[in-house]
């Protein structure tokens, strides 16, 4: 693997904004939306927009902290299990007569605790995040299923379940998306416009070098895993209220959708690279593409194949671009070496 540096930051701002994988994902999203709006029946309806946003809200929420985690070179595979565990905790408390505000707060605290466990094992014990979160994936899911068994809690207050289906006027945009917009603004500012965010990129490029530049690597990783657990629990609350059902097996397999969207949005699985606007566009791209294909009568299996191929191509494009860049760099170095160096005698004769 070639050395990862900051070469793109030597380019002008307009080039960084308009040329890159993130800009390509956004452009592809716009193309699919315009094509579907013009050629696919019902795709341009506000109801379709509502369904796309509601379907992808859970993924959007988890993708925010997951982006930061992957930029550091780590990963969290337990997010879907945290969604299921927070859903089970919420359902169990409501089943026993606890009010919704306190039940939701307890579910959020559950996510914080899950994030602390993951963060402590990864950041302070030094275990690989892949191994840790595979283990906690099974642990949290087992606890969730153990809390509710095979039963499903469905007696949630109607005024709470309606929160996930309300829209802003006739725009078709769900009201809950305002919560996501606020969180997205906070995470974008945190990653792209703060010293903490620069430290995240430093860790992804080289944890050892980040330590020497004053970045507290352990504390940063702990904070990111806690954020991932907290947002996963919030996603679990939304998921439960949206379907009106709390089960221990809720959101099984959701972690794969989140990671696929993050990688599709331009984040490097090796860390040190990625932007949140590209990730948000990647999530919406998957939602819009899936909706367009369903309206065209394409089966779910074929849709999964198409999205999988798109993800593979996006990952391959990163390696291809790095390979082309390495070739250009080596040619430039050889050209500099082969150029004759002027001698003092030749200079004096001129």
TrEMBL record:
Transmembrane segments: 18-37, 49-70, 77-94, 100-123, 130-153, 173-193, 222-241, 253-271, 278-295, 301-324
Membrane-related topology note: Multi-pass membrane protein
Record localization: Cell membrane
A Pfam family annotated for this UniProt entry: BPD_transp_2
Main location: membrane
Keywords: Cell inner membrane, Cell membrane, Membrane, Transmembrane, Transmembrane helix, Transport
Source domain of life: Bacteria
InterPro entries recorded: ABC_transp_permease (IPR001851)
Protein name: Autoinducer 2 import system permease protein LsrD
